[in-house]
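Help: why these numbers?

___
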Amino acid sequence: MDLTFTSNKKRSLEICEVIKEFDIGWTCLTRCTDVDPEILAAMKASGCDIVLYGVESLSPEALKAARKGSAEHIVLRAMKATWDAGLRFGGLTIVGLPGEDENSLDHMAKWAEENRHITRVKYLSAMPGTSVYSDGLKSGIIRDEVGHLRWLSTEQALVHDEYLNFNGLRESVMRRAYQRLYDSYQPGPVMDFRHWPEHFQTFYPDPRRDWRGQFSSAAAPPAPGSERFRRNLASNIQSV
């Protein structure tokens, strides 16, 4: 999967010309820094419906620490350009980046609540090979590398997931911000999973919202033994 579809504009425009010959709908992931009206118009003309952007955070400190090369004004510019092209903007966000604080999480949650365009929220994953992973090993936050990899395999991008605390914020602050972002998901599915639905489990119906009446999340079943990494959702919701 290409996580930065528009990083090479010439190539992306050529791909759009090819896709335009077929009657298909498609989506992609990319960076807010790598779009402009021309490429977005070409994507729309070739059948693209939604562009998923690695927003991660709006905090200058968190973005700098993560070396994202982005900023809030760049995100807002990409969001407007995407909407102007007739496309949907999908924000991919992270809770728990180093440098994040309670105010910056509240600011990002308010932005999400106002625009209702979140398509993914997850706690920070310390992936091997990243600076966050190296820092986690040095600081002792990650004490068992093999155990950490097993834990990563159980993540389901849900509010009650376990997480690594790199910024020192209280658990209630982290989970409340996560829940607010989660509740700001775009109405309706981003993708229509029709492949093997019998292999998916559904989680946590929310009768307050018509489109989540039956379930709010769907994912592959957890790996056997992963229960030891889980927490009770009801108790966590009460605690936040």
Q: What stands out?
A: The chain has a mean pLDDT of 84. The beta strands are 26-30, 48-56, 88-95, 118-123, 201-203, 217-219. Residues 92 and 120 are 5 Å apart (CA to CA).
